[in-house]
Design goal:
Helix content is 26%, strand content 28%. The chain has 194 residues and is α/β, with parallel strands linked by helices. The chain has two domains: 2-27 and 158-188; 31-141, Sandwich (Immunoglobulin-like), CATH 2.60.40.420. It has a six-stranded mixed β-sheet with strand order 1-4-10-9-6-7, with no helix packed on it. Helix 1 (2-23) runs antiparallel to helix 2 (161-188). The longest helix is centred in the C-terminal third of the chain and has 28 residues, at 161-188. The radius of gyration is 26 Å and the shape is rod-shaped. Residues 25-33 have low confidence and may be disordered.
Length: 194
């Protein structure tokens, strides 16, 4: 009976691997959602307002340049939670899908930020020439009012999580069936003395 269980577990593993490979393989993982192979930039000089989107666990753009006093709105377009934390500024509470908040920086300087939930999900706002102390007392943060954003998908990479879960569940069911079949066969097989 022990060998039937091992065969069932082996069959389950093989079926799960074949299902995953057959569907298209696992996408490569990277810190912060895969956007950190290169930095994206947005030069918004001369604009009174700019938006930084949270897309696929990435800040887009990674580095945004604005004039002093310009409004920067962070919008979560993902279906999962993010936040935006800077040095004595940011929105440290959860930003669920569609939520947004706006901040403005009056003094020149570089203001780095990160999402505490996703390592590697980082960025910076460069105000003016980027030189300055970037002191927190010059930042004005508007009260948070949730809004909904629409996400337009133009390209998809890798497997959706649902396919992976489906493959694992299918493999588990097939493995359980194989174990059950092995037990049934071992009960029917006559025991012979050696």
């Amino acid at each position: 009976m022990r060998s039937a269980t091992k065969r069932g577990m082996l069959l389950c593993t093989i079926v799960a691997v074949v299902a995953i490979v057959g569907i298209g393989g696992m996408p490569a993982a990277s810190a912060g959602g895969g956007c950190h192979a290169s930095v994206t930039e947005n030069d918004a000089d001369g604009q009174g307002a700019v938006t930084v989107r949270m897309v696929d666990a990435c800040f887009t753009a990674t580095v945004t340049t604005v004039d002093p006093g310009a409004s920067v709105t962070f919008v979560n377009t993902d279906d999962f939670t993010h936040n935006v934390g800077g040095n004595q500024w940011g929105h440290f509470e959860d930003l669920n899908g569609g939520d947004a908040f706006t901040v403005s920086f009056d003094e020149a300087g570089t203001y780095p930020f990160a999402c505490r939930y996703h390592p590697g999900m980082t960025g910076a706002i460069v105000v003016g020439d980027g030189k300055g102390v970037a002191a927190a007392e010059t930042i004005a943060v508007e009260p948070f009012e949730p809004t909904r954003a629409t996400r337009v998908v133009t390209r998809s990479e890798g497997l959706p999580a649902g396919f992976l879960l489906l493959a694992v569940a299918l493999g588990a069911l097939l493995g359980a069936g194989a174990v059950s079949l092995g037990r049934t066969r071992s009960k029917r097989a006559p025991v012979t003395a050696a």
